[in-house]
Write a structure and sequence with these properties.
7 helices; 9-stranded mixed sheet; 350 residues; Endonuclease, Chain A; 15 strands; 4-stranded mixed sheet; alpha/beta; FAD/NAD(P)-binding domain; 25% strand
Length: 350
């Protein structure tokens, strides 16, 4: 294990049935509207954990809340793919300036802040926010313009497919996420580095930097233009990776193990590798096993480029393998490549 990681603490998932109101926002359609309104509603505290935070409009919401006296704490990955961007440095700079010493940005560092630091996890890849200790935003999207575009949606938008949940109520669920946040943002660990104005990596953007606030254009006409809201009493299971992500006795693997004749499994994901290194991909094998038992299984994997150009061939290999296996075994199993928003699928949904 990495130094400082305590896998035992969150190995057992939270399993609880509680009353809640759940708002489902589909990205890129309504993700920004739901997230910005939720963050702007904070009266006392905001705890946000994300891989990256590059959305300037959401950054302004954080600064406005901090200036009003709300305590805002933002924990980010210290070594994202492509490095920490100036857009994120700007968000942190504005938050620190507005917060009056009460609100801060931190990075989970792996040697760029302190030379001998080693992050407890391979990546800080969480995407959630806790509002006033009572409401939880959680989903597949980083707080950026791709998953949460801030343009006028009247003529469409440009962004990637994902899902955000706003959960109001469910105090045990929110409480567990609060515990997770406090454990990750434990300042006694060397891998937590505070934003520092003059730091080359975790500091200010270049002098004169201004964030891009113009629309990214239009690639997609909204299909899910209204969030879905449901109230009731719901069973929740909260698993955290890497501690409990591969548990077989509960969670995703347990649900897939129950799937058989008459059951339907639908998967939409950014990617699904054919193997995990030299070992089989256990999740893909679980989907296939469900189909072999008689379940109707469909996989939709990303073929978009997120505006960067170039398509990974990993998903194509998986699709080819799955469809060949389905034909050989005569089961109801199919995989496709897709890009419903003409930008990319960033979803992780089963």
């Amino acid at each position: 294990r990495y130094p400082g990681w305590e896998p035992e603490r969150f190995f057992f998932p939270l399993v609880v049935t509680e009353a809640a109101t759940i708002t489902v926002a589909v990205a890129p359609d309504t993700s920004f509207a739901v997230v910005s309104a939720a963050l702007a509603s904070a009266q006392n505290s905001l705890e946000i954990a994300s891989y990256t935070f590059e959305n300037p409009m959401l950054g302004r919401v954080l600064s406005e809340r901090a200036a009003s006296g709300v305590r805002v704490r933002l924990l980010l990955e210290g070594g994202p793919v492509g490095g920490v961007q100036d857009a994120e440095r700007w968000v942190c700079q504005q938050l620190e300036q507005a917060g009056g010493g009460k609100s801060h940005c931190w990075f989970m560092d792996n040697g760029q802040g302190l030379a001998d630091a080693h992050a407890r996890y391979q990546n800080h890849h969480a995407k959630y926010a806790i509002i006033d200790g009572q409401r939880l935003l959680i989903g597949t999207e980083n707080f950026g313009p791709g998953g949460m575009p801030f343009d006028d949606k009247g003529d469409g938008t440009a962004g990637n497919r994902g899902v955000i949940l706003l959960i109001e109520g469910a105090p045990s669920l929110v409480g567990r996420m609060q515990q997770l946040f406090e454990a990750d943002l434990d300042l006694t660990h060397q891998d937590i580095f505070t934003w520092t104005a003059g730091h080359a990596v975790y500091g200010s953007p270049p002098i004169g930097y201004r964030p891009i606030t113009a629309s990214g254009g239009t690639t997609y006409t909204l299909y899910f233009s209204t969030p879905f809201v449901v109230q009731g009493t719901f069973p929740f299971q909260l698993h955290t990776a890497p501690e409990s992500g591969l548990r077989r006795s509960d969670g995703l693997f347990a649900l897939l193990a129950q799937a058989g004749p008459g059951d339907v499994v639908r998967v939409e994901q950014l990617y699904e590798h054919l193997t995990w290194g030299e070992e089989p991909n256990l999740r893909l094998q679980a989907y296939i096993s469900a189909a072999l038992r008689g379940a109707d299984v469909r996989l939709l994997l990303n073929q978009g480029t997120f505006g960067a150009g170039g398509v990974s061939l990993d998903n194509l290999s998986t699709v080819t393998y799955v469809n060949r296996l389905a034909a050989e075994r005569g089961v109801t199993l199919a995989a496709r490549l897709g890009d419903p928003t003409a930008w990319g699928i960033h979803n992780k949904m089963v």
